[in-house]
Amino acid sequence: MPHVLGSIILVRMRQSDQREQEHRPMSTCLVAQSGGPTAVINASLAGVIRANQLNPLYDRVLGGIHGIEGVLADQLYDLTDLSEHDLELLRQTPSSALGTCRYKLKRDDEADFRRLADVMDAHDIETMFYIGGNDSMDTVDALAEWAAENAPSKRFIGIPKTVDNDLVPVDHCPGFPSAAKVACQITHATRLDYDAYTRPEVFVLEVMGRDAGWLAASCCITGDVDLLVLPEVAFDRDAFLAEVRAKFEATGSCYIVVSEGARYADGTYLSAGDTAHDGFAHAVLGGAAQTVKQMIVDTGIVPRGVVQDLSRAARSSNFAQSLVDVTEAYDLGMSAHMRSADPAFTGQVVGIRRNPEAAAEGRYEAELFAGPASEFANFVKRFPAEWILPNYQGITPEAVAYFRPLIEGEPKLVMKGGIPATIVPFNKR
Amino acid sequence: MPHVLGSIILVRMRQSDQREQEHRPMSTCLVAQSGGPTAVINASLAGVIRANQLNPLYDRVLGGIHGIEGVLADQLYDLTDLSEHDLELLRQTPSSALGTCRYKLKRDDEADFRRLADVMDAHDIETMFYIGGNDSMDTVDALAEWAAENAPSKRFIGIPKTVDNDLVPVDHCPGFPSAAKVACQITHATRLDYDAYTRPEVFVLEVMGRDAGWLAASCCITGDVDLLVLPEVAFDRDAFLAEVRAKFEATGSCYIVVSEGARYADGTYLSAGDTAHDGFAHAVLGGAAQTVKQMIVDTGIVPRGVVQDLSRAARSSNFAQSLVDVTEAYDLGMSAHMRSADPAFTGQVVGIRRNPEAAAEGRYEAELFAGPASEFANFVKRFPAEWILPNYQGITPEAVAYFRPLIEGEPKLVMKGGIPATIVPFNKR
Fold first, then answer.
1. Mean pLDDT calculated for residue range A134-148
2. I need a labelling partner for B401 at 20 to 30 A (CA). Which of A19, A21, A101, B254 fits?
3. Between the CA of residue B268 and those of B122, B260, B272, B275, B287, what are the distances in Å?
4. What percent of chain A has pLDDT over 70?
5. Residues with pLDDT less than 50, chain B
């Protein structure tokens, strides 16, 4: 690829004197994905690949198959020259096109660190980009810390993603806005469906969020939700049932959104069943929504109910990508790559902040920034208490104002046979 | 409304001599919706309203709130002059904007027929359009039959809708294509999500279809489904589990689609639980997918599984309207209204056939036709046996060719705040 080589030389010449003096050999970067997939995690991947095509800091861009797990097993896929068309499809392909893992590196087990360094050496990998959530940012932090002592030329950079939106130092996390957009659409559509009937029945929608209720809370922005059950508020069975009864008495209907992580004061998840709390002898199986429906029926408020669980469908549905989300996810990938031109850039994560001046003027504007991985890892940002209305009544206008701009806009999707076109995942090739 | 009156007179003058000689007074038409909502049932409603604006055969278009149930209670809403903008939003508003019911008129109970005729008389209603499924077409048939003897000036015309696609004399039913489009998108997206993992787990998607497996079968068109369980094939637990085991042995994964109506040879629904069939002592609660997942886990093929149930989300999601579907649903409403210019047109339903010449050339082209309501009622068109592969292996290429054109195209949706805009349902005003 002489023309690519040419531009690398040009670019390198434009870089700082310090780097020119280094005369570093051509190197490689590695990008991998980890944790639960989202609708835009591949947009971040596309951003890294495209950035290197625009400015080939690295000779090659390798993808790690199934996250750190596959990298340790030397399972890599060359992404350097992905075509413009494939990059366009990659941006709109949901789930992790490289495959994912839930493998967590342990700081006290150096064997994995050593093995990873060996794989990196074997492929001349200088920089590893890791796209993931809380645990993955901890991995970035641990690797950078270890490398500072043991492999100073190796660098580790994080790109956040999560449908849970629970990372601390950012305004929001890529993946969450698209999941919220799906959830809002289905909330509104199923509310209309529910409202078409006259028969007394309760509707309970369950959405993801084991530790934080961001996604459940976002369902309230269309005004369709009567009652909201969040992990942030200890579930009080009697108080909740009183609210359900009041809604039926006032309006003849009750549409409820429950976070999968909803729990009692003693920490027991509603999804574990209601046996311990309802005084009934039979076990209630299933998720939190099923439990809530069953307790309402058992209490005799209404004779029947409908449950809709949006677990996997919400997080991976590319047909409702938020334009804001896909753009930001792509930009984070680009930004991480571009910032890695600085040889001192390691142990860092790029994230999104909301521009405060624009916000003060009522506009939404995102700013990208970089911060230490340690600030992104091992904390859970819960949905703010001050945005929660008492008695399961939903969220405040401030919360609605936070959510609204995130779900704006729709990318122009490339369709094939009536559904959004996707690429064949690299882990399946 | 002098200009409307004027055009009515003009139109009437252009009609047959017979009608001119009748000197009929200005009359009204009524349109109502019944049964389970779909994503495009309101497009048919918009078609009726718009047709009357283009050619005011009727002085007023009244909407019956909550189907025949509300009409009997004299709950009507004037739709005559709905604005162009509201009609545009109505077309993309999912669920039944007039509200729905599951009330079935009984042929041997004349009181309801008499009461309906009285309501029609009170509002000078000549023609009633009923948008609904199998039962609703039976209602149209029964009413037309009764009116022939007892109220000869009253006419009853059916417009079909169903997500189940199980009406007999048509190629397909409005509402089904959009539900299939949602189901295909979520099948493809959740398959990608599933494929991102390495851990052994089974994925089971459940879709609607109590008596017919059209919607479940349509999930197979993207090639993402490993095993398909339809109501049309008696479920054989051992044979099925052998196929699941074989898929895991061959590929390490198994993605299953189950119709909610899946049943054993003795007629027991899988959704009723597996207790009677699995030899295990514990009850399995939940839907068919939950039962299938549990039997796979209990058999020890894999230690865990994921269930995604698409019940309400699939049938009412306007964000994935099929352009073919919404256009055809609208056209059926228009066509029913236009055909009602013929005073002899009663007890009829308008439906869709596939143009055979176009089909022979590999093109899809729909033809509208009208047929007796009796041919639409009281039959269930099951998914054809010759389109089902043995051993739960999915569907034939002929079935894929049938489905493919139905989910083509996307209407340009009017968006509001990041989700498709809708009108306030008439039953909620």
1. 94
2. B254
3. 48, 12, 7, 11, 13
4. 91
5. 1-21, 23, 278-284
Contacts (Cβ under 8 Å, ≥6 apart) of A360: none
On the 0-12 / 13-18 / 19+ scale of CB atoms within 10 A, A110 is exposed
Q: How many CA atoms lie within 13 A of A243 on its CB side?
A: 19
- How far apart CA B380 and CA B392 sit, in angstroms, is 22
Q: Average pLDDT for residues A297-321, to the nearest whole number?
A: 89
Total residue count of chain B as it appears in this document: 429
Catalytic (active site) residue B164: yes
**How far are the Cα atoms of B184, B209, B220, B372 from residue B387, in angstroms, in the given order?**
18, 17, 12, 28
For the whole model, what pTM was predicted?
Answer: 0.91
Specify the range with the lowest mean pLDDT, choosing from A1-10, A183-192, A325-334: A1-10
| Helix B176-195 / helix B323-339 crossing angle, nearest 10 deg | 170
> Taking CB atoms and an 8 Å limit, are B422 and A309 in contact across chains?
no
How many CA atoms, within 13 angstroms, populate the side-chain half-sphere of residue B405?
A: 15
Instruction: Please report the beta strands in A208-287, taking only residues with DSSP state E, as ranges in sequence order.
Output: 227-229, 255-259
Sign of CA dihedral B59, B64, B69, B75: negative
User: What pLDDT was estimated at residue B316?
Assistant: 81
Q: Is the sign of the CA dihedral A408, A411, A412, A416 positive or negative? A: negative
Could you tell me the two tokens for A81?
A: 């020259």
Q: Is A55 left (phi over 0), alpha (psi -120 to 50) or beta?
A: beta
- Write down the catalytic residue from B164, B226, B274, B309: B164
* DSSP alpha helix (H) spans, B79-123: 84-92, 110-122
Helices (H), B219-372: 237-251, 275-278, 288-298, 311-315, 323-339, 356-360
pLDDT tens for B10-46 read 333 334 444 444 545 569 999 999 998 999 999 999 9
Q: Two tokens at B100? A: 């729905």
Domain A176-273+283-315 CATH superfamily: Phosphofructokinase domain (3.40.50.460)
pLDDT tens figures, A368-393: 999 999 999 888 899 999 999 999 99
* Facing residue for A189 by CB, picked from B188, B317, B404: B317
Q: Is residue A16 over pLDDT 80?
A: no
CA atoms within a 13 Å half-sphere pointing along the CA-CB vector of B363: 7
Looking at domain B28-162+319-378+411-428, does it have CATH number 3.40.50.450? yes
Q: What is the pLDDT of residues A198-256, one digit of tens each?
A: 889 999 999 998 889 999 999 999 999 999 999 999 999 999 999 999 999 999 999 99
Query: Chain A contact for B184, CB < 8 A?
Result: yes
Q: In chain A, which residues have their Cβ closer than 8 Å to the Cβ of B104? A: none
Q: What is the four-CA torsion angle of B201, B202, B208, B209, rounded to 10 degrees?
A: -170
With beta carbons under 8 A apart, name residues in chain A contacting B421: none
Residue B15: what pLDDT? Answer: 43
C-alpha B333/C-alpha B41 separation (Å) is 10
Looking at residue A100, its pLDDT comes to 95
* Common-topology check for domains B28-162+319-378+411-428 and B176-273+283-315: yes
In chain A the first and final C-alpha atoms are separated, in Å, by: 24
- Per DSSP, A225 falls in state -
Q: Which A residues in the span 119-138 are in contact with B, Cβ-Cβ below 8 Å?
A: none
Q: Would you state the pLDDT for residue A314?
A: 81
Measured in whole angstroms, how far is the alpha carbon of residue A62 from the centre of its chain? 22
State whether residue A42 sits within 8 Å of chain B by CB. Answer: no
Q: Within an 8 Å CB–CB cutoff, is residue B414 touching chain A?
A: no
- pLDDT score at B210: 85
Contact assignment for B422 to A316 by CB distance below 8 Å: no
Shortest CA distance from B253: residue in chain A: A428
Taking the domains of chain B in order of start, what are their residue ranges? 28-162+319-378+411-428, 176-273+283-315
Q: Does B429 touch chain A (CB under 8 A)?
A: no
